[in-house]
Amino acid sequence: MVKHIAVIGSGTMGRGIAYTAALSGYQVALQDISEQAIAKARDYIETLLKTSLEKGYIQQEQGELVRENLTYTTSLEEAVKNTDLMVEAILEIMELKIDVFKQADEWAPAHAILATNTSTMSPTEIGATTKRPDQVIAMHFFNPVHRMKLIEIIRGLDTSDATMEIVRSVSENMGKETVEVNEFPGFVTSRMNCIIGNEAMNMLMEGVASAEDIDKAIKLGLNHPMGPLEMADLVGLDSRLRNMEYLYQSLGEKYRPSPVLVKYVKAGRLGRKSGQGFYKYQ
Ligand SMILES: NC(=O)c1ccc[n+]([C@@H]2O[C@H](COP(=O)([O-])OP(=O)(O)OC[C@H]3O[C@@H](n4cnc5c(N)ncnc54)[C@H](O)[C@@H]3O)[C@@H](O)[C@H]2O)c1
């Protein structure tokens, strides 16, 4: 039974996964290599607790539960040594993910499941670098984690049924719906989201319409809750570019990153996290 979850990487996704897991009653260790990232994650979680309490989304006791259940560390060994489930949420770079999995494979208990929150990449490739490929899987959460209903679960070639069932049950305990996907680059959601976002960026570059009007058209005309450019700003344009590059390499021309995306990342316009992307933020 899963009681302890180690979340690796405390950025946009890791801090949200840690908060949601702690609120669902799991003991959580949130790890990052950067002290600064840990401090930011702690501030984010404190602010989220405060606003959720004020708005009545959670009760006082639930806030206390989150604080009791959550610990922060910069040591991977410390985070995984007593864990039942690791969820890795570091940068979308295969070599970095493999390093984390190889080390976690040495330090985590034999029964522990090692999951990745990758948006596009192969849990089979990651699992093959460990001694437990049957216990490696992808748990793809969505941003912001505490509000989004879905976890897309991706089986690698050697992922066991037992691993699948445990991960599904943890996802349900976190109040999420799940879909099961057989591994293929970009799964269901990232592949679809990337192609819609890239088309919107190319339209912007071609002068078809302004960013505001492209987003408005897709929201009001196609009933999407967010426009594709707003969505890309939320995801982070650097993350989106890495996703597009991976899909382009693995699936071909259709996924070539829009030149406007490449240019914005070069300029440091990374979306909400840097204060400017397709829109400006305070
Ligand atoms: N941003 C999204 O909307 C979104 C949605 C679903 C999935 N994802 C996936 O989640 C993962 C994380 O994305 P993000 O947007 O949270 O990234 P982010 O850049 O916000 O955070 C990444 C964090 O990982 C830390 N890190 C880097 N190397 C590390 C290491 N070796 N050990 C521990 N920590 C390390 C960094 O310090 C940083 O704090 C990626 O694989 C991404 O594709 C992102």
- Provide mean pLDDT, rounded: 97
Question: Helicity range of the residues?
Answer: 40-55%
- Please tell me how large the radius of gyration is: 19 Å
Main sheet: strands, sense, barrel: 8 strands, mixed
* Strand content range: 5-15%
Question: What can you see in these coordinates?
Answer:
The N and C termini lie far apart (44 Å). α6 links the parallel β5 (113-116) and β6 (136-140). The chain has helices at residues 12-23, 35-54, 60-69, 76-80, 94-107, 123-127, 161-173, 189-206, 211-222, 228-235, 237-251, 259-266, and strands at residues 4-8, 27-31, 70-73, 85-88, 113-116, 136-140, 150-155, 177-182. It has an 8-stranded mixed beta sheet with strand order 3-2-1-4-5-6-7-8, sandwiched between helices. It is an alpha/beta fold and 282 residues long. Helices cover 50% and strands 14% of the residues. The chain folds into 2 domains: 4-182, Rossmann fold (3-Layer(aba) Sandwich), CATH 3.40.50.720; 189-274, N-(1-d-carboxylethyl)-l-norvaline Dehydrogenase, domain 2, CATH 1.10.1040.10. The protein has 12 helices and 8 strands. Nicotinamide-adenine-dinucleotide binds next to α1 and α5.
